[in-house]
C-alpha cells in the first residue's frame, strides 16, 4: 500500500512538471511506445477524468482534399490502408494498457477522423459531431469550432473514464498553441489533456500508441 501511494505521488509530481498552460511551452515530442514518458501518461489515464485528443490516422499516399464537402467521401483525404491498421492497433493498445474510455467517443464528420474513431473503438461507440470539424472545412463556423475544442478540452469528465476525441491537427494547434505545432502531433498521435473546468486545461504530453509506418506526416500536411 505504501509503495502504491509513493508511486502515485511520483506520477503526480512528474505530471505537474510536464503540464503547462496552453501555448506556453516548446513543441512537445511524442512519448515512444514502451518508454517511461508513455508510462507516466498511461498511469494518469488509468485514473480517468482526463481528455485524449487523437489526430486521425495515417493518410500517406492518399489524394489531398479537393472538394471540402462534409458527407462526400470522394474529394476528401482519407486514411490509407496503413491508417486503417493503425486505427485498429490504437484500439487494441487502449485495451491492453487498461485505459478507460467514457462513451461515446466523439469524432469529427470528415471521414478520416470518423473512420479512425469507428475502427479503433467500434462504430456503435462513436458519436459524430461538427464540434470536431477540420478547420479547412469550417468556413464561417471556425470561431465556434475552436470554442468547442476549448470546451471539450476543459470541461470536467463525468464518471471514471477519459473523454476521447478524434479530430484534426489544425484546430488543436490553433487552440493549444506552440506545444503541439510542427511535428509534435503525428497522424494517429494523441494529446493528453488535464481538464480544469473554469480554469481551462493543461497539456500533459503526447502519446503515439501505434506509430504510423510513414512517420505520421503526409505530403498534404507538411
What profile does the largest beta sheet have? 7 strands, mixed
Q: What structural class do you assign from the helix and strand content?
A: alpha/beta
The H-and-E topology, N to C, reads as HEHEHEHEHEHEE
Helix content: 25-40%
Report Rg. 16 Å
Distance between the termini: 48 Å
Tell me the strand order in the biggest sheet.
1-7-6-2-5-3-4
Count of beta strands? 7
Tally of contiguous helical segments: 6
**Average of per-residue pLDDT values:** 90
Gross geometry: globular
Strand content: 15-25%
Brief sketch in words of this structure:
This protein is α/β, with parallel strands linked by helices and 222 residues long.
Describe the protein's topology.
Layout: H1 2-18, E1 20-21, H2 36-46, E2 51-55, H3 81-96, E3 101-107, H4 111-121, E4 126-128, H5 142-154, E5 162-167, H6 169-176, E6 190-195, E7 201-207
Helix pairs in contact: 1-2, 3-4, 5-6
3D architecture notes:
- The chain is of the alpha/beta class and 222 residues long.
- It is 34% helix and 16% strand.
- It has 6 helices and 7 strands.
- It has helices at 2-18, 36-46, 81-96, 111-121, 142-154, 169-176, and strands at residues 20-21, 51-55, 101-107, 126-128, 162-167, 190-195, 201-207.
- It has a 7-stranded mixed β-sheet, with helices on both faces.
- α1 (2-18) crosses α2 and α5 (142-154) packs across α6.
- The longest helix is centred in the first third of the chain and has 17 residues, at 2-18.
- It is globular.
Amino acid at each position: 500500500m505504501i509503495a502504491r501511494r509513493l508511486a502515485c505521488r511520483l506520477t503526480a509530481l512528474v505530471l505537474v512538471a510536464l503540464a503547462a498552460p496552453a501555448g506556453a511551452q516548446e513543441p512537445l515530442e511524442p512519448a515512444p511506445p514502451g518508454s517511461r514518458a508513455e508510462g507516466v501518461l498511461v498511469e494518469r489515464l488509468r485514473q480517468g477524468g482526463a481528455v485524449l485528443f487523437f489526430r486521425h490516422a495515417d493518410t500517406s499516399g492518399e489524394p489531398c482534399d479537393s472538394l471540402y464537402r462534409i458527407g462526400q467521401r470522394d474529394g476528401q483525404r482519407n486514411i490509407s490502408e496503413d491508417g486503417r491498421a493503425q486505427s485498429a492497433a490504437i484500439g487494441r493498445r487502449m485495451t491492453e494498457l487498461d485505459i478507460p474510455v467514457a462513451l461515446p467517443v466523439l469524432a469529427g464528420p470528415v471521414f478520416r477522423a470518423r473512420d479512425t474513431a469507428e475502427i479503433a473503438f467500434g462504430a456503435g461507440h462513436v458519436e459524430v459531431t461538427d464540434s470536431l470539424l477540420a478547420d479547412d472545412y469550417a468556413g464561417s463556423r471556425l470561431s465556434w469550432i475552436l470554442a468547442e475544442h476549448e470546451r471539450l478540452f476543459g470541461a470536467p469528465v463525468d464518471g471514471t473514464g477519459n473523454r476521447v476525441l478524434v479530430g484534426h491537427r489544425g484546430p488543436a494547434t490553433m487552440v493549444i498553441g506552440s506545444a503541439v505545432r510542427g511535428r509534435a502531433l503525428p497522424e494517429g498521435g494523441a494529446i493528453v489533456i488535464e481538464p480544469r473546468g473554469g480554469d481551462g486545461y493543461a497539456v500533459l504530453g503526447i502519446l503515439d500508441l501505434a506509430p504510423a509506418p510513414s512517420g505520421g506526416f503526409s505530403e498534404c500536411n507538411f
